[in-house]
Amino acid sequence: MRGGNGEVKQQPYWGDTVVACAATPAPLPASADVVVIGAGITGLSAARALARRGLSVVVLEAHTLGWGASSRNGGMVLTGLKLSAGTLLARYGRELGRQLYQASLDSVDLVEQLIRAEGIDCSFRRSGHLALASKGAHYEHFARAADLLARKFSHPVRLVPRGALRNEIGSGIYHGAMVDELSGGLNPAQYVAGLVRAARSAGALLHERTLVERIERLGPRRRVRTARGTIDAAEILVASSGYTGAATPALRNRLLPIGSYIIVTEPLTEALAQELSPRGRMMYDSRHFLHYFRLTADRRLLFGGRARFVPETGRAVLESAAVLRRGMLTVYPQLHDTRVDYAWGGTLDFTFDTMPHLGSMDGYHYALGYAGHGVALATYLGTRFGERLGTTALPLDPFTQIPFPGAPLGLHVGKSWLLRCAAAWYKILDCIQ
Ligand SMILES: Cc1cc2nc3c(=O)[nH]c(=O)nc-3n(C[C@H](O)[C@H](O)[C@H](O)COP(=O)(O)OP(=O)(O)OC[C@H]3O[C@@H](n4cnc5c(N)ncnc54)[C@H](O)[C@@H]3O)c2cc1C
């Protein structure tokens, strides 16, 4: 796609930077201490931690290992949750709000520790993140947020006024920014490949192309029915995120699957890359339909956004690529003649309170709802679950303490008109706020 035309690879760019880590086909074991459904960051982190405790763990993945959002994302390892610090305090009170925010900081540390402990080569760097104010009022909001983070969470962030933005970004469209130096970036496919190796070497069994169709209760144990046979399990972790389906209908009804799309340019010259992002930060703007962008290790610009409020389909990728390219040129007109090499989509897992949740229902455990912060938080919730299952520490985790609401008025999430209404609402908010 140069100047809007040309061939674009419709696949995640990250896939071309990693050797696929396929599972060797093997018969399913008859039973396991824990069955994990979904081989993304949540499932693999949990499997690694569980297996390190000596439990027998089987991970079942409907597609290939890491097929879901975990290998398709922007690779931003972000502090904070999707909800602002102020909303966390107002909604959950001072102590629980503080614990939830602190967990987000701990999650970034955990990613770094895990990468180091397992020797995962995934270009992880604490490059910091840059939240960009799309409107003047949003910068004023940043100033209030920075004050709150310093006072209530002892977490310093730095404001960058409009006049000083050139040190941070080669774009003139923003009204200021907020820098958080604790965030980082990585190559998500390489990270997932490392988690696969780590879970395997800890002793977990990983099975791909194994769709879980149903979970049945057998007294205190569970039977997991798959397209390839059954496994009995003492415990089950559902780690299927935005791809949660018919096997766990009650959980599916508490999730809003949202399509997010990414384009990646051809490699840029060193000078142009330096101009676009002098400090190599992870960047995103302050709108509801936000854009997020960063440089890759080989100096391409990755530019993503919620170009459509529906789960991805083949055609949606190309349509979204065109929308995203226009968005990219609004931020960086200097990329007008730059080719787009890759375009793809993936599904985000939003919940109705925009919070991650760790808990149990219908005889299984779940960990999901990361709302675009899953690289760090899925590592955190998966690992915490794996380290604490069966101990008294698990129920104390702050993410188990918050209520998990379903759709408002009991509406069924599968209805596309509900997603369209939500999309229209957020578009209105972007215009008026
Ligand atoms: C385009 C995009 C960009 C993003 N960018 C960022 C970012 O920059 N930073 C960030 O922190 N987060 C980002 N996210 C979010 C982040 O990627 C996710 O929150 C995180 O990867 C979720 O990991 P997971 O392991 O819970 O789920 P996934 O990685 O989605 O894995 C779930 C797996 O479950 C499998 N599955 C589902 N049902 C079944 C079943 N019945 N049987 C067997 N297997 C099943 C699926 O096939 C899938 O592989 C982004 C997401 C997308 C889509």
Q: How is the topology of this model organized?
A:
Layout: E1 31-37, H1 41-52, E2 57-60, E3 76-77, H2 85-118, E4 129-132, H3 136-153, E5 158-161, E6 176-180, E7 184-185, H4 188-202, E8 205-207, E9 212-218, E10 221-226, E11 229-238, H5 249-252, E12 255-265, H6 270-276, E13 282-285, E14 291-295, E15 301-305, H7 314-331, E16 340-351, E17 357-361, E18 364-368, H8 374-388, H9 416-432
Parallel strand pairs: 1-2, 1-11, 2-8, 4-13, 11-18
Antiparallel strand pairs: 3-7, 4-6, 5-6, 9-10, 10-11, 12-15, 12-16, 13-14, 14-15, 17-18
Helix pairs in contact: 1-4, 1-8, 2-3, 2-8
Flavin-adenine dinucleotide binds next to helix 1, strand 12, strand 16 and helix 8.
What does this structure look like?
32% of the residues lie in helices and 23% in strands. The model has no long low-confidence stretch (mean pLDDT 92). Helix 1 packs parallel to helix 4 and helix 2 crosses helix 8. The protein has nine helices and 18 strands. The chain is α/β, with parallel strands linked by helices. The strands form three sheets. Strands 1, 2, 8, 9, 10, 11, 17 and 18 form an eight-stranded mixed β-sheet that branches. Bound molecules: flavin-adenine dinucleotide. The site of flavin-adenine dinucleotide has 44 residues, from helix 1, strand 12, strand 16 and helix 8.
